[in-house]
Amino acid sequence: MLVYEFISNGTLYQHIHKAKHLPSTSLEKRLRIAAETAEALAYLHSNASTPIVHTDVKSLNILLDNNLTAKVSNFGVSRLVPIDKTHITTMVQGTWGYLDPKCFSTSKLTDKSDVYSFGVVLVELLTGEKPVCLDRIEEERNLAIYFVHAMKENRLFEMLE
User: Fold this and answer.
1) In a domain, 7, yes or no
2) Which of these, 20, 65, 89, 141, is most buried using a 10 Å CB contact count?
3) Domain assignment of residue 107, given as a range
C-alpha cells in the first residue's frame, strides 16, 4: 500500500487541459514545476541507491500540492536498473504520446526513455497542447513531432501558450 500526502491541486494534466475550475498557471510557475519534475527524475536516475526508470512520465502522474509543488507519482510500472547495467530489456509499458519511440522499437528501457517523456511534458506545459491530438493532420498528431515540425518551419512562437 502506498500512502501519499493530500494533494489539493490535483494533477498537472488538470492544470494544463481542464483549467476551467483551476487557477491559471503562469509561465513562471510552469517552468518551476518543470524544474522540480526534472530534479525528481534526476534523483531517480542518479542518486537513488539503485537507479529507477519511471517508464510512465506524463502530466497525469505529476501531482501538485497547495503551493503547486510538483510530486512525481505512480511508480507502478517503474523498473530498477542494476548498477552494472545501462538499460533493461522488458515489455514496454507507458502512455501513447509520451512513450520514447526508440524504447518502443528496441524494448530497452533507459533513463533516456524518461527524459524523452519529460520532454513531451515540457512541450505540453509550454504549449497547452495534449500529447496526442486527432484534430491535427496525421503526421503531426503526436505533440513531439508537431513541435519539431513547428521549430523547423519557424512557427515555434505561435505554438506557445
Assistant:
1) no
2) 141
3) 12-159
> Residue 3: inside a domain, yes or no?
no
**32 assigned to some structural domain:** yes
Do 62 and 75 meet the contact criterion of CB atoms below 8 Å apart?
no
Query: Considering 56, 100, 111, 114, which one is annotated as catalytic?
Result: 56
Q: Which residues contact 74 (CB under 8 A, 6 or more apart)?
A: 56, 60, 61
Residue with cell 519534475: 37
Buried b (16+ CB within 10 A) or exposed e, 67-89: ebebbbbbeebebebeeeeebee
The reply to whether 56 belongs to the active site is yes
Tell me the average pLDDT across 27-56. 89
Instruction: Tell me which DSSP letter residue 51 carries.
Output: -
How confident is the model over 103-149, as pLDDT tens digits? 767 777 778 888 999 999 999 999 999 999 999 889 889 999 999 99
| Count: domains in the chain | 1
